[in-house]
DNA sequence: CTAGAACCTAGAGTCGGGTCTAGATCAACA
DNA sequence: TGTTGATCTAGACCCGACTCTAGGTTCTAG
């Protein structure tokens, strides 16, 4: 079940450009094979890995960290602890990020609520305006 | 209580470069005043606004959106609904982002847990490795 | 046979958000 | 007085992660 780069782009949501770029950056576990005419051939497992990559990326893992991971995986058994450590590092990072966002969200929600009250009463212009006192 | 750019940098955590850059980008509500010798003078309210900016930035609000907001604030009363709408837009964005991160975190945590079990039993090399089946 | 789509490479360009440099001025201290 | 350090401007540069271009080949349908 061979897949062309266009097919993989369509199914992964990445552009063909991005797929070639990822390959140059060494983000594929298995070197991408070529047809005799030079065209790239992908398989289902590449698609699965890309789905994981996309997840990791969208949660803020830099390509360099993904490469670090895949480099270990490529070396085969023996470094599982290290791989796990990379994942845990990112896990902690994401957790911290969620806390940070939640924190900002709380502050914002409070501001918005207070301001809505003020607006409802016809008082206004005091919402996070550095030139004026803060109603919160 | 006048503050120099260096003082503001120290207290805001932004670099002097970034402060000048923010000014060029129109992110200050009140135009930054100058001493007769051309040096910038800041005040406590600038610092307060910068703290807010930093929050918004670190939660992913682009500078362009902050500028949009501050432009409205600068125009004075009458556009409070619009300002509120900007905040709500970002609020929704942050909420969605938190959900996305939480989602990825769940997947990762599951993977990590399963893998730790496998490792503990001496089975290995199956953690998100595109060349091998997945134990999850 | 031919048009158009899909593919190839190398390398340039983009965007956001800064960061840094050069060269000048100015302040403060020993 | 001289040196150190803070500031100024304009503009170049950086980074990550793509995105796009130019110029060329190859596949596919009619």
TrEMBL record, chains A, B:
SMART domains, per the entry: HTH_MERR
PROSITE patterns the UniProt entry points to: HTH_MERR_1 (PS00552), HTH_MERR_2 (PS50937)
Top-level lineage group: Bacteria
Keywords: DNA-binding
Domain named HTH merR-type: residues: 1-72
Pfam families: MerR_1
Gene3D superfamilies: 1.10.1660.10
PANTHER family, sorted: HTH-TYPE TRANSCRIPTIONAL REGULATOR ADHR, REDOX-CYCLING DRUG-SENSING TRANSCRIPTIONAL ACTIVATOR SOXR
The protein's name: MerR family transcriptional regulator
Organism: Streptomyces omiyaensis
